[in-house]
Structures are given as structure tokens and as C-alpha cells.
């Protein structure tokens, strides 16, 4: 337990005995079509029979024809349909009325080793293993008999003089054919056929039984066998085990597990089996499973010491270079003479559509699904599958390529990058003819952004404060000049400076940015928002940030933007409080409101977007509990996930004895639990 207190004491010990007298003939009957309150204990059981090998049971039970709920006319009609008008000893219903029903069993489970019947008496528990668990359901075989009667009557009415037919049959020649010897494969198919199994089941004879009611003396006598007949430990040695032996029975050694471990499914990749294949097959198998991968990750999956030149030669045969990463070729995923599992579209058409999707990602980071579908004109399921191979959906951004551009690989292997570029030019010319594309379609739709440079939260806070002071001084000078009757011209961004960010979208990022934020010395002012500097967060925005972090404590930039969008949407019409807010302005407001960025070390294979990897936490509220959060944030700068006992140990080391309630509060405010590990809110990766 997390608290370490033993609050679940043992209150009683019960001796358990294994009874074996009925171990090979004890069955559990279930009646799934009958409520538990309506048992058959008081119903007359007319016939009972069993096939022990097949564990098949049939019971015939009487129907109370005198019950007010019984429909006599319907019962007579059923009996007439089944037996006809003539009386015969083989009739199903002897009284010309349906006065009984048959129950037939099916096995609820074939493995009953986990089930037993237990009886508790005088502080002792006696258990008896079950031989079978059978579900008793009504049998409607009488309807088959009625159908046969109907067909016989129809055949008799339609039949004429059969003597002539018989004479003609006698005059016909008979052709004799000898069966060929049965092959082993044919014999196996015959043995596994339904007809053969039905025949084998019919060969086992029925064993007729005599039914005894629940209150019968014989039933009472048989129930005594549910108790262990001898309590002498020397005769019941199977359950007398040492603690070590008993533990071994509960948790068998790993060697035993390997023997009984089932064969893995075909869609699971075994690295041990993979490395027995030739290098080319290893690369092909990995790319078919992963779909998109950086070259460094591919080398890490292969055996140590593998020649990178050979891997490069192999990867170019099964994959194409997209933004410095390798994406499996379409014809590897969709070989010839195959078709789509979703729509049945031929592989040739699928390859053209997927090549178009890959080619678009060589030009831009994100694509729109509707635009892709309108050009390649394939079913939505196939288009979605193409995108899921190489991209992930992002809010208001369409589908974004899964991995960042691998600039290191392009710089290290310029010859490979150039060869792949020429290959894409060839594919581009084919796509132009197939989809009738214009020249504008071959130009990137997004202005390429420079590689982000990560800066710490403290640096960003200092830059924001300095920028705010400079803007306030400039604004004060402007106002003083106006009062004195002079004019001051509004500064204009030159080519060396960054243009002012006037986008109303939260996801817009201007050119010339550092880590997605504009240059700290940008001179642009925006007098449309109350005449204040554009880079100073408004009091309303700061108030929103303070209230939001006071409620959530930890937020990613992506989640904060989502909450801001919801807040703006809920504001009254005509109240333009948040005008032209960019990402950097929102982050400035966060850093100015007693919050800090937590540099969470996400794993290299993380698929989180940049906005999802920027994590901010409430740093200072003026309460003593702030030091608990700061210690937690510091731990998450070293690992993106932690165990509870590690957090408890760190708090105890730095702050002394911390109550369990404080630990629970800290984790509930700042973290989420998944698979036994704790993550900061918004950082759990699926």
C-alpha cells in the first residue's frame, strides 16, 4: 500500500478441504433462458439421459396443461402437426397435446479446471472440482418432425402411380465406379468436416438416468459426498505444501512459461527472429511495420556493427526520403495483384494516391485531408490510411508530418538526398500527368520556417520584461511629445527587423522567429488595441491566465490555446478584449503571471507537436505549498514520467515528513496517472 500502513488485518482463517468423491461426475447445469427465481425443482422430470464422452445431456420435463397460462388449442395444434391424426407408440405426444418439453445441453466452457463446487460447514470449506458446465436450452426438434410430416403429406398428394417408374428403373443400365484411394489431405478434411463430427457424435449411445428431486433421500445422500470423507493430512498430501512450494505453484518459473507460451500473432514483430533474416529483408520488414523512420533509429534497431553503407543501399530499395526521414514505398505496402482491405481498390491505384500524399509532404509540413481526397478521388478510408502512415491530425492545422525534418541526415549524406530529389522529380512528372496538376500545385504552400532554437523559461521572462520596459518608455515619450504639441512618427519595421505580427490566429508564427517567437527587439506597435504596445499582454489576458492556472496548475501551450479559444467563444458579442493574440504574446502573459516553463525531457520517439511539448506550471501563489510544486517540477525536468514512491522519497528528503494528503493533492493538481506511472498533465503519450 502507498501509505505503508497495514489497515487490512486477517480476521478469520478457514480450513479448505478437497473432496474427490464426485470429482469425475459433478456437473453444473445452467438455464440461461429462465430467471433464477423460477427453478425446475418442482417440475416432473420424465426422462434424463447423457452421453458422457461428449458431455451432452437431454432432459424431458412435463408441462402443466392445467395451468391457466397454458393455451390448449395451441398445444393440440402442435401435437397434431408433429404426430398427425393416427395413434402410434412412436408419437412424441401421447395425449394428443403438447404436454412436455425437451432441454438439450451445450458446453459453456471446455476447460473447467478453474471451477469447483464449494460447501461451507462448521468453519470448513469443502470444494469439489467440476467435470463440466452445461447450459440447458429448450430443444425444438419437434418442429423438425412436424416439417418432415408436412413434406411426406405433400409428396403423397403429388405422387401418382409408381409401378411404371419402378419398371423403368429396372430397365436402366447401371454404371459401376470405383473410388480412388483417399489421400492424407483429403482424409484430414473429411475428419474435420461437420458431417463427420455429427456422425461421430451420433455413434456414442445415450446412457439413461433416473432423476431424483432436490428433497429426495437419495439426493441428500449424494450431497454428503460434497464433503471431504477424510480429514487426515496423510491422505490429503496434495495440499500440504511448504511455503516455497506453494509459491512456486502460484508463480511458476519462467522456464515453464516459455514452454507453454503461445505463438505470437503474425502482426507482431519479433526482433530475435528479425535478426536471423538477411539485411535487406530486415530493413524491408522494419519499414513495413514502422512506415516512417529516421535513419538513426533504423540503425539502432539493427544489430550492432551493421555497416551503414549497406543499410543505405538497402533502404533506398524499399523507402523514399521525405523531409530527411525514410518512408516505406507504396508498392511495398500494396504489392501487385492485391487490393484495398477497405474498398477493394486495386493496388496500382492505391500506389498512385499514396505517392501523391508522400509527395505533398516533401513540399510542406501539413496537408488538408479534404484537399487530398478531392485530387486523388479515392474512398475516405483509403485516404485516411495513407495519412495515418506518415502524419497525425492537429487541431486547425490538418494532418502534420509525424517527424521533424532530419537536417543532420541531409547534411551528412548530400549524395543520397540529391538522388532522392531527382527520384521525386520523376514521380512528380508522373503525378502531373495522372492527376492533371498545374504548376502552382508543385510549389510549397507554406513559407519554410527556420529550425527552432529552444530557450529557457527564465530567458523568455527576462526578454519579455525588457521588451515591456522599452515599449513603455517609448510610449511615454510619444505621449509627452503629443502633449507638447509635437508629433512622433510611428516606428516602421525595416528589412532587417521582423514584421509586426497582426494575425488573429493563435497558431500563427511570423518569419524570423526564435523558437517560434518574434525577435525581442521588434519595434512594432499596435495602437488598435487601446493605444498600447502590441507586445505587452493586456490586463484581461493576464487575468485569464491567472484564473486558468489557478484552476489547472499545469498546462501545455496547446491546451492553453484551446481554453483561450473556448473563453473567447463564450464572451458576449461586441466585446473585443483579446485582439490579435499570437503564441508568443500568450506565453509572455504566462511567464508574467507567476508561472514558469517546465523543460520536460520528452523521449526522442515522441509524436507530440511542438505546442504539446511546451509545458507551463504555476510557480508562485504565496502559499507554503508552492515549494512542493517546485520540487515536483524539478523532478520532471530530469524525466518525463515518475513513480509515486520516487516523488514521495524526494519530498521527504527535501521537506521532511510529508502527509499522504499533501502528496495526493500535489499529484491530483499537477499530474495524471497511466500504467502505474505519473506524468505532468497533457504529457501522456499514447
Structural class: alpha+beta
- Main sheet specs: 6 strands, mixed
The overall pLDDT average reads 78
Strand content: 5-15%
Based on CA atoms alone, the radius of gyration comes out at 40 Å
Given as residue ranges, the uncertain stretches (5+ residues, pLDDT < 50) are 161-168, 256-265, 447-453, 486-534
The coarse silhouette is extended
What fraction, in percent, of the residue positions are helical?
40-55%
How would you describe this protein?
This is DNA-directed RNA polymerase III subunit RPC5 C-terminal domain-containing protein. Residues 146-171, 460-534 are annotated as: Disordered. The protein is an alpha+beta fold and 686 residues long. The chain has 3 domains: 12-63 and 99-152 and 185-260, no CATH class; 276-442, no CATH class; 457-619, no CATH class. It is built from 25 helices and 20 strands. Strands 2-8-5-4-3-9 form a 6-stranded mixed beta sheet, with no helix packed on it. Strands 1-7-6 form a 3-stranded mixed beta sheet, with no helix packed on it. Strand 6 and strand 7 form a beta hairpin. It is extended, with a radius of gyration of 40 Å. The two termini are 27 Å apart. Mean pLDDT is 78; it is low at 161-168, 256-265, 447-453 and 486-534.
Summary keywords:
686 residues, 14% strand
In brief:
With 686 residues, the protein is of the alpha+beta class.
SSE layout and pairing:
Blueprint: E1 15-18, E2 27-30, E3 45-51, E4 56-62, H1 72-83, E5 100-109, E6 116-121, E7 124-129, E8 132-139, H2 141-158, H3 163-171, H4 184-191, H5 194-203, E9 207-209, H6 217-223, H7 243-250, H8 254-260, H9 271-274, H10 279-290, E10 292-293, H11 295-301, H12 308-318, E11 319-322, E12 325-328, H13 330-333, H14 347-363, E13 366-367, H15 369-376, H16 380-390, E14 391-394, E15 398-401, H17 407-412, H18 414-435, H19 457-483, H20 539-552, E16 554-556, H21 557-570, H22 583-592, E17 595-598, E18 615-618, H23 626-636, H24 644-655, H25 660-670, E19 671-674, E20 677-680
Parallel strand pairs: 1-7, 2-8
Antiparallel strand pairs: 3-4, 3-9, 4-5, 5-8, 6-7, 10-12, 11-12, 13-15, 14-15, 16-18, 17-18, 19-20
